[in-house]
Amino acid sequence: MLSRCHILAGLAIVENGYDQTARLVAVSPEEFESREKELLVLARQWMPRLPFPTADLLLIDEIGKDISGTGMDTNVVGRKYLDHAAREDEYPKIRYIVIRDLTEATHGNAPGSAWLSSA
User: Model-level pTM?
Assistant: First the structure.
């Protein structure tokens, strides 16, 4: 694409753990790949995470589409690739997740029943 299109520059936007813009970086086309890798490391450092690697039970007050497409941040709860358990290389490892409520913005519509079962 870069060889066929006349792209002057790109604007990289890196968000922090609160969905706020934390850094804006102008990037020349020849730096797209290398800068993206650098900024991805930074974004991962700023991503929210639980303060423990394993737990038997995680209580979540609310989930909803206004929080994440799946209702909760799958990166944070360790279920990015599988619904019912963390992958071997994925942390945190939570045995059971209990969801207490839905956000107002969901209007009572849960994203599905997959989250309601245990690991």
Answer: 0.66
